[in-house]
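Minutes, methods subgroup
Present: GH (chair), OT, SY

1. OT presented the first of two proteins processed in the latest run. Sequence and structure tokens recorded below as shown on screen.
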Amino acid sequence: MSIQRGSDGIAAATSAEAHAIGADAAADLAATLKAIADPLRLRMLSAIATSPTGETTAGELATLTAVLQPTVSHHLKVLRDVGLITSDRRGTWVWYRIAPGYRGAVTTLLDRFAPAAIEVARAAHITQAGPGGPDGQSTLTGLGNVDPALDRLAASLAERFTGTPESECFRVVRESYAALARRGGNAAYLVALTEHFARQRLIDAEKVRALDAGHKPQVLFVCVANAGRSQLAAALMQHYAGDRVVVRSAGSAPASDVHAAVRAILEELGDTAAADTVDDVTRFYPKPLTDDAVRAADVVVTMGCGDACPVLPGKRYEDWIVGDPALASPAGVAAIRDELDGRVRGLLASLLTPPPTFVPTSVPTSVPTTEGTR
């Protein structure tokens, strides 16, 4: 290790040793990562973490695979030995749950790291298909100088939202563009998406200022990436509620695009023309969580985003434990969609008087698989 004297004469390490995690910590971490570096154990971990009750039995986990029960027990023992899960026996059943100290870490693994890893793998597959993507077409690029377009957009919004100072419109437009740009993805559509997102934010801000007690109920669905669960829940709410409820969705760390399996269901729900209306948030693009969206909401539904959503007085909060469709099989995606459908219907019935009459929706006959290229 090389040593260098700083300006204060104190010796400072300049090698990688000064920045790397400690050897003991690395050894402990490696043991835990090794324990989950198995496809079946990862599926078990996700099934336990997303169970509505927060726990499940070995018998239920055995349905994930065709292996014998002793093999299932072995995998559970590996996870238990490193402290990832705990268990207790009740009668003839042993119940497993995520260890309290690991709940946040497992949520981060499943909701942020895993989808990102799958997306990188998918992108690598597309790149291998050809320089312009799988269809051989050239990739669209964004504007070289976006400032004039953003200025025109802000000026246009200032004319429409007369109750909002022009300087505020310019700030919201700039912030919205920067927030959407940070997600990554294709830059060609950033200005158009910025217009939709900025308009939504200005509408929410004006609603908060108006303090109108007679407004329509507003529901905000929040997950980590705003690429799966919250998008699907918002689309289902929009489908059943129509114009009787204002629907929003957002992500605490939005992805660059909606998951392919979820996009198929969103399109199946139909009414893509509604995506052009200002109040509609079934626009199929992830968007970041904003304070105005929370303030304007009457109900905030969180799904896996932990403490990222601010808790404000006078709001109704619900936390739904639902699996992530980004990691699910086609059958799993359909099951998640059905679970959200039931939850959304229950929430809508509590918001409207008299309760709505529901017309069953159909599950897509073919849901793109997340395996292989996802």
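2. SY then presented the second protein from the same run.
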Amino acid sequence: MNTYTRLARLALLVTCGAALSLTGFAATPSGTTTVTSVAPQTGPSKAVPETIDASKLSNAWDKTFPEDTRVSHHKVTFHNRYGITLVADMYVPKTHKPGEKLAAIAVAGPYGAVKEQVSGRYAQEMAARGFLTIAFDPSFTGESGGAPRNVSSPDINTEDFLAAVDFLSNTKDVNPDQIGILGICGWGGFAINAAAADPRIKATATSTMYDMSRVIADGYFDKGKTPAELQAYRKGLRQQISAQRTADYKNGTYAMAGGVPTTVTDDMPQFVKDYHDYYQTKLGYHPRSFGSTTGATLSSVLDFANMPITVYAEEIETPVLLIHGEKAHSRYFSEDIYKRLKGTNKELVIIPGAVHTDLYYKMDVIPFDKLARFFQDNLK
């Protein structure tokens, strides 16, 4: 054990010991100390039993995209380290042979969407090209567990990707050394964070990426804003959300941020109209999607404003493919991450003429051939 490891373990033991001394005992009025009802931890912490039985979930086709007869699909469940059970659709190519171990891809996004919308479309198409894939509902959303509902978190949502890797690493039809992830829209940022954290992820792709921490902390189109302007913006945001937390606690309910507008007006930015045309029409509406309905809990915003999710992007050593539309309002997120990535294992692909939401559903615009080659080359 090297010096760094010994010091890290010592720090952990000291910290944990202090925490146990605080939580395991309580002072009495006489000043003596009594043991509380919290039992001491005497062995490994056990995983919480999963709360959802995949066999009891419907496998009826309820997606916003057509079913592909080249692929089979069924529901699966897995858990993250916070004890939340996540539900996913697993897509497997019908060419898969018994005992064959496939390269696998975990797919999620966009922010506010569910697996029946965009991520499932990507996962199904990648399965048709030979990969085992899962498209999962994030914690607190869709068919996945967790309460209160429609919470989002920079920490827990990154953990959801890592939990998907845990699951795929233990799936009998998957080669655990050939696992990649694909994040769409806001989940592109979580994918970058996950790739920086977890060397088990051998290749990472993002499509029409948002950095949710950046856009919440700094607002849209932050280039050109002064440090003082950005700080003032965040101060106002913190004051608003902190006051809302007080009200939420008092009321016993959580205020919602609101989903994509159900109607459009002439003065709305074009990208908001584009979101409406996807989330609020037959094209992409789904009742379990908080993008289509309530939005996330408003108090979720505070965590993103204070916790940057791409801070260690420069330390990613595995291949990264960034895909974005030429006309997308969000293009700068991918371009800026690309500039920060090191080495030669990075690529930025700009799709001519495409706007942000074109990469949600337009099969003739999403570069699936490029995605397939990227994962074939790097998951081997």
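Chair's summary of item 2: The CA atoms of residues 25 and 31 lie 12 Å apart.
Next meeting: continue with the remaining queue.
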